[in-house]
Design a protein that fits this description.
Elements: E1 11-12, E2 32-43, E3 48-60, E4 77-78, E5 86-91, E6 118-122, E7 127-134, E8 140-143, E9 157-162, E10 174-181, E11 185-190, E12 200-203, E13 208-215, E14 220-221, E15 224-225, E16 228-238, E17 245-250, E18 257-260, H1 262-269, E19 277-288, E20 292-293, E21 299-300, E22 303-315
Parallel strand pairs: 2-22, 12-22
Antiparallel strand pairs: 1-4, 2-3, 3-8, 5-17, 6-7, 6-9, 7-8, 9-10, 11-13, 13-18, 14-15, 16-17, 16-19, 19-22, 20-21
C-alpha cells in the first residue's frame, strides 16, 4: 500500500534553476554548495518526454558581506493549505517557452567548482555513473548520459559518492547515504485527448476530472516508505511572454484522482482565451530525501520530481 499524501504548508518552486557563484575555485577546504536535479517530466499522456535528467554540480558558496543585500529568493508557486483546495498564482514570465537541450534551456544545474572525472549514485545493487558535461553557459556538471524512461531511476533510493579529484583545488572525496529518493513514474489517463488532436477539450464552467496511475513502488529510506507530495497543476503561458504565467495548483485528497472545480478553471482562463496562450495540465510527484549536512556543514535536502500531463483547450459550454 502506498503512503498518504504529504502536505507542505509553504511555498514551493516547481522548476529547477541554478544560481551562479564566484568563478574562482574555492579549493578543497572552502565551503561548496551541492546542487542536484533529478527530474522526469513527460506530457501528451506519456508520449513525449520534456525533461529527463540526473545531474550534480558544485559551486562556491555565495558570501553576503556586511551591509550587502542578500540575493532575492527565487519565484515560487503558492501551495494550498489543505488537501482538496486549489490556489491560483501569477508569476512573472522569465523566459521564452523552450525545447529541452536548447541553448536557452535554464532548467539545469551547473557550477564552477571542479571535481573528479565522474561521480556515482549507488543503492547497494546498481551504480549510476554521472560523467562530466559542460552547460551552454560553460559551467560544469555531472549528468546521467542518455537519460530515458528505461534508464531513469524510478522508485529507487541512492547514496551519492564523490571520489577524490586529481586537481588539488577540486572537491575532496565524500559520500552521503540515502541522499536521493526517487518516486514512481506518473501516467495521466484522464482527461483523454480530444477528437481533433492531442489537446484535451475542457468545457469552461464544468468540473474537470483528472486521473492517473503510479508505475512502481514508493522509495524507502531506512526501510520505511517515503511520503510524496502530489500536486495537480494547470499552467497558462503567454507565447509572447508579455503577460505573467498563471498557475492553478491543487492538492488531491485521494490517490490517483482529483476533480478540479469548474469555477477555478474559469478564474484561470479569465482574459486568456486567445490563441497566444497555451494551457497544460500536470500531475506532479515530488519525493524528498532526508536532510543531511555536506562535509562543509551546508544542509541539503534533495527533491526528485516525476510528472506526466497533457495540453488543454478550453471550449465554451452550450
Amino acid at each position: 500500500m502506498r503512503t498518504g499524501l504529504l502536505l507542505l504548508s509553504a511555498c514551493s518552486s516547481f522548476d529547477y534553476g541554478m544560481s551562479k557563484g564566484n568563478p574562482d575555485s574555492p579549493g578543497t577546504e572552502a565551503p561548496v554548495d551541492l546542487a542536484m536535479d533529478i527530474a522526469y517530466q513527460s506530457t501528451e499522456w506519456g508520449s513525449r518526454v520534456n525533461r529527463c535528467q540526473v545531474q550534480v554540480a558544485f559551486r562556491p558558496v555565495t558570501v553576503v558581506e556586511p551591509g550587502e543585500e542578500p540575493p532575492a529568493p527565487p519565484q515560487a508557486v503558492d501551495l494550498p493549505e489543505e488537501p482538496g483546495d486549489c490556489r491560483i498564482t501569477d508569476m512573472e514570465a522569465v523566459s521564452q517557452p523552450m525545447e529541452v537541450g536548447s541553448e536557452d534551456d535554464d532548467w539545469q544545474v551547473g557550477g564552477e567548482v571542479i571535481g573528479p572525472e565522474a561521480v556515482y549514485l549507488h543503492d547497494g545493487e546498481d551504480v549510476l555513473v554521472l560523467g562530466v558535461a559542460t552547460t551552454a553557459t560553460e559551467d560544469v556538471r555531472y549528468e546521467l548520459p542518455d537519460c530515458s524512461a528505461s534508464t531513469f531511476p524510478f522508485s529507487r533510493t541512492f547514496a551519492l559518492q564523490v571520489p577524490a579529484s586529481e586537481d588539488p583545488n577540486g572537491v575532496h572525496p565524500f559520500e552521503m547515504s540515502e541522499l536521493v529518493a526517487v518516486g514512481p513514474q506518473v501516467r495521466v489517463s484522464s482527461p483523454p485527448p480530444g477528437d481533433q488532436g492531442s489537446k484535451a477539450l475542457v468545457t469552461l464552467g464544468e468540473d474537470l476530472d483528472v486521473s492517473w496511475t503510479l508505475v512502481g513502488d514508493d522509495p524507502t529510506v531506512s526501510g520505511e516508505p517515503v511520503e510524496a507530495l502530489v500536486k495537480v497543476m494547470v499552467l497558462q503561458q503567454d507565447l509572447e511572454r508579455e503577460i505573467p504565467d498563471r498557475w492553478l495548483v491543487c492538492l488531491p485528497t485521494e490517490e490517483g484522482t482529483f476533480t478540479i472545480p469548474g469555477e477555478e478553471l474559469e478564474t484561470l482562463a479569465e482574459g486568456r482565451r486567445e490563441d497566444r496562450f497555451i494551457t497544460t495540465m500536470t500531475v506532479h510527484l515530488e519525493v524528498e530525501g532526508v536532510e543531511q549536512a555536506t562535509p562543509w556543514g551546508r544542509l541539503v535536502r534533495v527533491g526528485a520530481h516525476t510528472s506526466d500531463g497533457a495540453a488543454l483547450q478550453f471550449v465554451d459550454g452550450d
